[in-house]
Amino acid sequence: MTDTPPNTPAQPPADAPAPKRGGGGGKGGGRNRQKPPQRSQGGRPAAMRKRHYGLILSFLIIVIVPIAAASWYLYSRAADQYASTLGFTVRSEDVSSAVDLLGGLGSTLGGGGSGAQDSDILYEFMRSQQLVQNIDNKLDLRTIYTKQRDPDWLLSFNPEGTVEDLTRYWQRMVRISYDAGSGLMEIRALAFTPDDAKAIAEEIFAENSQIINELSAIARADATRYATQDLEQAVERLKQTREALTTFRLTNQIVDPNADIQAQMGLLTTLQAQQAEALIDFDLLADIARDGDPRLEQAQRRIDVIQVRIDAERQKFGVGGQGPGGVEYATTIADFERLTVDREFAEAAYAASLAARDAAVAEANRQSRYLATYIKPTLAQKSEFPQRIILIAIIGLFSFLIWSIFSLVYYALRDRR
Questions:
Q1: Residue 317 and residue 98: Cα distance in Å, rounded?
Q2: 81-233+366-386 under CATH 3.40.50, yes or no
Q3: Distance in angstroms (rounded) separating the CA atoms of residues 282 and 313
Q4: For the chain, which residues score pLDDT lower than 70?
């Protein structure tokens, strides 16, 4: 029998009932309050419920399985993709021209679209089916994009796809970065070999250069169209007036009526001088000769003949006077002057139209646009795509978010029951 230490309360047996608190006469003594039994620190943990197994299973299906499947495909089946980068912008020439010395004839001529508008056109063109067809005809894009079809059936192109399918796949493989403010455009072309990626980038630049050249040609044609039409009309008018003047000369058998008039006036002046000389001789002879002298009659006859000739020459310039070709001299001179004025006006119009056309062409050439590359097509040395770690991280993140949302919805519905 062991001794019990003093001042030590006796321990109740393990199977003794718990003592009751509160007396019958005290306040609330009629109620027996009993706390639930607490588990000791060394007790057994709570058992797994069916919902816990469901959460674990859903986590495996929604999160782990997609990550594992994506990792298996990306590291064992997905083919490496190589990128070729190309950067360019649309530039416009702005140089002075010697035609500006003509007084700014081309200052009011409008040019084509601005560089920013051309960049917008090129951005849409590089996403179009037309560009895909052009490059497919030159490089055979279907063969390029199906080289890794056997292992990589998901990220490669289906050779049986239509041109619309090829265009959608092209928009995945060719990524365009465009800054509308500065007009800078950067293209990254993807392919399964570095050489194919570079070839695609070079062909993209060639197609865009052709498009911008066509736009420049259209702008120049629009800027010079009306000036060219005016020049053609001026040339035709000058041709007609010269032909009319040639016909006049052949009909009247005279090259220059003005020169003919000068000749006629010279003849008239000579006749008048001879008439004056004959009159003087007649007066001198009359002083020394007797009446009936034959010399006086001959001198008078010479004076009369000269006067008749003078009258005949003067009548050519009057009404009814016959000129070359049997036509009135006045009518001939009037027709010649009219044709001369028409020719001079046609020549002046031709010179003005020619200067305007040259000014329009010079102004259009000053506004010519071209592609300026600041990054030439690069040749990749290693594959950068697909970005496996980033893709797996994104799949894991979204899978975990989906699983978390489903779990929260499940427990919210469970708590409401």
A1: 51
A2: no
A3: 23
A4: 1-48, 93-116, 253, 255-264, 316-330, 365-367, 417
Predicted TM-score (pTM) of the model is 0.56
Alpha helices in 140-193 (DSSP H): 141-145, 163-173
Q: Say if CB 167 and CB 53 are below 8 A apart.
A: no
User: In 97-184, which ranges are E strands?
Assistant: 174-178
Provide the residue ranges of all domains of the chain, joining segments of one domain with +.
49-78+387-417, 81-233+366-386, 235-362
What Å distances lie between residue 416 and 110, 406, 412, 413, CA to CA? 74, 16, 7, 5
Kindly state the tokens that stand for 5. 């230490």
Which amino acid appears at position 198 of this protein? K
Q: Look at the chain and count its residues.
A: 417
Say how far apart CA 163 and CA 173 lie, in whole Å. 15
Q: Is 2 exposed, middle or buried (0-12, 13-18, 19+ CB in 10 A)?
A: exposed
> CA-to-CA distance for 170 and 366, rounded, in angstroms?
36
Residues 138-175 pLDDT 10s: 988 888 888 777 777 778 888 888 889 899 999 888 99
